[in-house]
Structures are given as C-alpha cells and as structure tokens.
Input
Amino acid sequence: MSNPLQGKRILITRPAHQCAGWQATLASEGAASDCIPLLDIAPLNAESDPAAVQAIKNLILDFDQFDHAIFVSQNAVRYGFDWLDDYWPQLPQGPRYYAVGAATARAIIARGAEPCVERERNSMDSEALLALTPLQNPQGERIVIFRGCGGRTLMGDTLRERGARVEYCELYQRLLPTQAAAQIGAYRADVDAITVHSGETLDNLHHCLQQCDRSDLRALPLICPSTRVAGRARALGFARATAAANAGDPAMLATLREVLAAQ
Output
C-alpha cells in the first residue's frame, strides 16, 4: 500500500522553535514541508509587565501550598519550571502534576516530576484531564494552572464549579510574528495541506489570509488538533478542516494520512 504522504508538500504553521520535530516526522513519511510560523511565544518580563511578573513570583513562592498543578502546554512547562528552579532547588512534595497532551507530559518528566495520567492513555486534552479521579471532587483544594495569557477557561471554570480554589499562573504571551502575513502572501509553493496545532494559530492564519487575499490557501485540507478547533475553522471558511484526536504528532500524522489518502 502506497504512502499517501510520499511526494506531498505540507505547510507548517507552528512556532519557529517547535517546527523541527514535526518537519522531521513528515520527512520520514516522504513529504516535503515549509514552515511559516504563525505564532510566537514571548515570556513575560519585569520591564514590559512588572505586575504580571510579581503575580508569577507570588504563586511560585506559594507553590508548596497547592494540591494540584496543571500545565497546558510545553511552553507552560518550560517557563513554569524555569521559575520553579529559581525558587525551589528541590520540588516540593505537595502538588500533583498534570499535563494537557503527551508532549507536555514528556516535558514535565524531563524536568523531574511525574504527571498523573490514566493507565489506558498517555495523551489527554482538557476534557479528559478533567475526568481524572483526583480532580472529580477537589472541594476546598488549591489548584494552579500554568498557561499563557488568556486562553480557554473551561478547565478553571469546571474546577471552580467542583469547589476548588483555582489560580492561573500566566507565564507568556502568544503573538502573531511581524512578518507572517507578508510570508503567507509571498508563498507560492504547490502545497497539498496545512497543519495548525492550536486555536490561536488558526485565528492568526485566518487573519493573514484576509490581509493578503489568499483564498486559495483557505481551500486546502486543514488538519486541526481537536474537534473544537476544526469546528471553528469551518466557521471561518476552511471547508476542508479535519480534526485529529489531539495535537500530538502521531494523531496529527494519522489524520493527515487519512485526508491525503482520500483525495
């Protein structure tokens, strides 16, 4: 059976520092790829936002008082554990650790902690994480969610409804790279599909296509990391948006194979 990715070209929209692994995965399947980053990750700093940095510091200093610590992304792990390393030479024993996604779980393990996972699966989205037994009845327990500024409130809202005391540790901003629209406008490769790995990336792609009038790219197959993001993509005019099971490389690759095989 032929490989549906052999000889295909895929447009990747991940942040620049996260492109290499996905490009290598596609190359191993015989596909070429181009990366136009449509999301930039910038950590908060004391010069640009001293109040936000002080809020982070306060939560980090209080970390041993939390019962649960949830990390929503690899970036949340990277910046969160950098802060923890600065103030906790040894991680405190109190909090349980949780990860949204398999890559996030691996990042936590690499930093010396063990995330709670279900036995049957090692990759969880927000909804699956909320189904874990320790988070079913967190009445009166303290939970800190490490994330970027803004984002979905489903997890925090649900945990508060269950009686938990939830605080967000917002560590970084998600920005549209300055040259992104110009790069999309100038892109002329014969591409077979586009991958987006987050809702923010999808919104930025939509914005860039509007700015540079590239409706041709909107007509391509678009591989999304969830049914929620795929639904939003279709509402934005991406008629060929398809949802993967999650944002991990194996799930995104499986969906990309299925979509290209059906063409």
The first strand starts at residue 9 and ends at 12.
